[in-house]
Amino acid sequence: MLTGFNTDIEYDGTVYHVQTEDRSGSNPLIESLIYMKGEILAARRTEYRHLLEAGADMSDIQALMERQHRAIVEVIRNGRIDVLTEPQLGSEGDTTVSRRPPMMAPPGNGGAPGQRKSSRSLDEVIVDWLAEQQRVTQVRLHVVGGESLRFGSGFTLLAEVRSAPGNAPVAGARVVARFLSTAAKAIDLVEGETDERGSVELAGTIPTLDKGTGLLVVAAQHGNAADEAKFLVQR
After folding, report:
1. pLDDT above 50 (res 100)
2. Residues 6+ apart with CB under 8 A from 90
3. Is pLDDT of 77 > 90?
4. pLDDT digits (tens, 9 = 90+) for 142-159
5. C or N: which end of the chain has fewer Cβ atoms within 10 Å?
6. 123 and 20, same structural domain?
7. Structural domain of residue 44, as residue ranges?
8. Residue 36 β-bridge partners
9. Same-domain pairing of 146 and 172
10. Other CB atoms within 10 A of residue 127 CB
């Protein structure tokens, strides 16, 4: 079982607690529970059996779990708890956010709780919200040099960030290379900022690891737009 995450976020005088854990077993999934005043306000569950069958290892699942946790925390931090409690109905098999009535209405929601039970892909809801509320241009990250990473060895990556749509260079984007593993905590190895060409070079060293698997995650962020690339570390 992977190490989970717990975060408290205060918004508008209310403290929300987000707990994300690995639920392994016959139907393995990542479960995030959002608590308000000790009660479960919403939940998100991501099944990952199909990822394991496709060749993913537990470092990939750890990265997915961290991304899911961070996405939910950011939604709450930006005052959009309704994204978690009042999503539209999605297709069966989606990664979902599920409301558990009866619950208290979130701050500023204004709607009566428990009127309907619905689910939708959280990623879809976040994208819709960003498009509606922030009107930001999305970015796409391309990384060269991450194909042959090894434990204990140095690396040099060339990261390029471009707008999507438009494919224009994005200057001033923050790019971070983070090391994730099944045997240690996540470590930020190196970070930089893209130049006028939308490029930045990242150089660092992959930590040694006696056991387990490792993953290098390169993440780019510009305003509210973000993208990432993942590379498996070899022995």
Report:
1. no
2. 96, 119, 120, 121, 124
3. no
4. 999 998 899 999 999 999
5. C
6. yes
7. 5-134
8. 16, 39
9. yes
10. 12
